[in-house]
């Protein structure tokens, strides 16, 4: 007989695995960006960043479709549909000879992946609430963070022995395993009596309900600011370490060490959040996020890039703060939306991504010969996040569904 703790551990692992395919699809491809660009005739290296940022655009848009549908038809069947879209998109990516079609395939991959990503959050919200929900989300994110630790190394391994297309095939194999596990072991968390009747006004009605909660709006905006500035790092890390520092062979290991920093923070958050509360944890972390980035800008405003050890040290501190922010911000936004968890997760993800993608694309254009623009971006959007935080803290305590 399966104990409650055993079920909870498997639940966390499964939810993390659903989210992990997003990280694997993004991070395993990082070492292959130059090869893909060369294979598809890309002349400007900065355009390779689009292979990373465009998948986020697909994730953001896809959530608007899958989230509301899940509130009417349940979570499980929507996950299956999303994976079907992902499979089709992956085939497009490995068969095309056009960079434009590759970008279309990456966007479509994002649309497909938006389903398991959004549904994992909605399923957690269906099952938990309050600070304990934040604890579960933190653990899910912590396990999810382990993927970037190994993904670039995996990508480089496949690239070395096979080709860049093999990375896409590996992702398809991983997806097949996860979807079978999900089908066999995860029960539906939205019973029929709690589902919203499907109608042409489903999304509009959900949006009207979402905007009733200022906390949900505010924390969604903050998520967009933090995600956008972090997305710049994801899309430019290969350029920074391989071109600016000439460390192509070390790139996967540096990337992995920094991912561990985020993972450690999310673990500590899962331990501390029930005691101190997700609001307080997130606010203190936002202050640290701003302070670290401003210190870097102050120290290296008029000089070249610092040594790789100094840079990695600053990145590690910055991402340690981010590790406390990710799970708490999502939990804070979702807390009052339990009655519309699917639509709520969709709108939260869409708005934060729509904010994040242009932020990443704009700042990424400046990260050519120096890392400074990246930390300026951290500073600017960290300060904007703090402003929104302070406005929210003046309001009455969080409403719960």
Description:
With 401 residues, the protein is mainly alpha-helical. The protein is 80% helix and 0% strand. The protein has helices spanning 4-27, 33-39, 50-73, 75-95, 99-127, 130-161, 165-185, 202-210, 214-244, 251-276, 278-299, 308-334, 341-364, 372-393. Helix 3 (50-73) packs antiparallel against helix 4. The relative contact order is 0.15. The mean pLDDT is 87.
Assign a percent range to the helix content.
over 70%
**Helical element count?**
14
**What portion of residues belong to β-strands?**
under 5%
Order of helices and strands: HHHHHHHHHHHHHH
Name the features.
globular, 401 residues, single chain
Show the helix and strand layout:
Layout: H1 4-27, H2 33-39, H3 50-73, H4 75-95, H5 99-127, H6 130-161, H7 165-185, H8 202-210, H9 214-244, H10 251-276, H11 278-299, H12 308-334, H13 341-364, H14 372-393
Helix pairs in contact: 1-5, 1-6, 1-7, 3-4, 3-5, 3-13, 4-5, 4-7, 5-13, 6-10, 6-12, 9-12, 9-13, 9-14, 10-11, 10-12, 11-12, 11-14
Q: What is the compact description of this entry?
A:
Helices cover 80% and strands 0% of the residues. The chain has 401 residues and is mainly alpha-helical.
């Amino acid at each position: 007989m399966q104990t409650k703790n055993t079920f909870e551990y498997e639940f966390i692992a499964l939810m993390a695995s659903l989210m992990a395919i997003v990280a694997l699809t993004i991070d395993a491809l990082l070492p292959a960006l130059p090869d893909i660009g060369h294979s598809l005739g890309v002349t400007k290296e900065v355009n390779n960043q689009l292979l990373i940022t465009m998948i986020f655009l697909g994730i953001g848009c896809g959530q608007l479709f899958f989230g509301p549908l899940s509130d009417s038809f349940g979570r499980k069947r929507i996950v299956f549909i999303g994976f079907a879209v992902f499979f089709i998109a992956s085939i497009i990516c490995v068969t095309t000879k056009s960079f434009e079609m590759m970008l279309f395939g990456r966007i479509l991959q994002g649309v497909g992946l938006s389903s398991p990503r959004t549904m994992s959050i909605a399923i957690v919200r269906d099952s938990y609430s309050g600070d304990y929900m934040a604890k579960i989300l933190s653990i899910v994110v912590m396990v999810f963070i382990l993927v970037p630790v190994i993904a670039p190394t995996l990508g480089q391994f496949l690239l070395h022995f096979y080709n860049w297309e093999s990375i896409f095939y590996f992702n398809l194999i991983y997806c097949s395993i996860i979807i079978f596990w999900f089908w066999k072991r995860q029960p539906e968390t939205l019973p029929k009596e709690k589902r919203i009747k499907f109608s042409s006004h489903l999304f509009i009605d959900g949006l009207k309900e979402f905007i009733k909660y200022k906390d949900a709006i505010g924390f969604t905006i903050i998520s967009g600011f933090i995600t956008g500035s972090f997305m710049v790092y994801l899309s430019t890390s290969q350029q920074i370490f391989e071109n600016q520092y000439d460390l192509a062979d070390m790139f996967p290991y540096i990337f992995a060490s920094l991912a561990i920093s985020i993972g450690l923070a999310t673990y500590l958050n899962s331990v501390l959040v029930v005691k101190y509360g997700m609001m307080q944890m997130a606010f203190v972390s936002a202050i640290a996020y701003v302070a670290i980035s401003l210190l870097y800008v102050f120290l290296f405003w008029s000089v070249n890039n610092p040594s790789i050890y100094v840079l990695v040290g600053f990145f590690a501190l910055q991402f340690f703060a981010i590790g406390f922010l990710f799970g708490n911000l999502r939990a804070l936004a979702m807390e009052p939306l339990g009655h519309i968890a699917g639509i709520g997760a969709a709108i939260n993800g869409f708005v934060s991504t729509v904010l994040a993608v242009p932020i990443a694309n704009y700042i990424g254009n400046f990260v050519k010969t120096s890392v400074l623009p990246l930390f300026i971006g951290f500073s600017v959007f960290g300060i904007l996040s703090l402003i929104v935080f302070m406005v929210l803290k003046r309001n009455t305590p969080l409403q719960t569904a």
